């Protein structure tokens, strides 16, 4: 039985892009429109020889801003509770949003270890946004670029103690 890792976070931060990179197949739909992926996806991931089952949380697509947080919360909690460790992804270009803070509050109540990752961190312009993610109170953010494959060694080092 492989250890299980969930990727959680608000829509459009790059969860499916990281999932695709780690699974190595285009299993998760990626789209420029926020929240296009319909269902939760799972796949067998490999990161520098570390093997695990990975869950891409999705299904947040809705035009109804009032129901989004409730649906996100249910899916986020379900995935995190099944996982040995969870990656909480934020967008280093957008900075911390109120929805990120909401997700952080849900995660604080869970027993699963959380690794904070600041995605879209390619290039130097994002450094202050990466720092801003400290304010979420979930430890040191790991700068990552899922799209460009940067920060994967640091991600490996962060995951290894948990799986
Ligand atoms: P999800 O909703 O969290 O699953 O996000 P997606 O993986 O669907 O990505 C949302 C958007 O962010 C897409 O346009 C991606 O191409 C883009 N994206 C993902 N990772 C990166 C990254 O590392 N850098 C940049 N600049 N864009 C990214
Ligand atoms: Mg997605």
TrEMBL record:
The residues covered by the EngA-type G domain are: 3-163
Q: Name one GO biological process term.
A: ribosome biogenesis
**Mind listing the UniProt keywords for this protein, alphabetically?**
GTP-binding, Nucleotide-binding, Repeat, Ribosome biogenesis
| The keyword NAD appears for this protein | no
**Residues annotated to bind GTP 1:** 9-16, 56-60, 119-122
Molecular function (Gene Ontology), one example: GTP binding
On assembly, the entry states: Associates with the 50S ribosomal subunit.
Which family would the database say this protein is a member of?
Answer: Belongs to the TRAFAC class TrmE-Era-EngA-EngB-Septin-like GTPase superfamily. EngA (Der) GTPase family.
Task performed by this protein = GTPase that plays an essential role in the late steps of ribosome biogenesis.
The name under which this protein is listed is GTPase Der
To which species is this protein native?
Sphingomonas montanisoli
Which stretch of the full-length chain is present here? 3 to 165 of 458
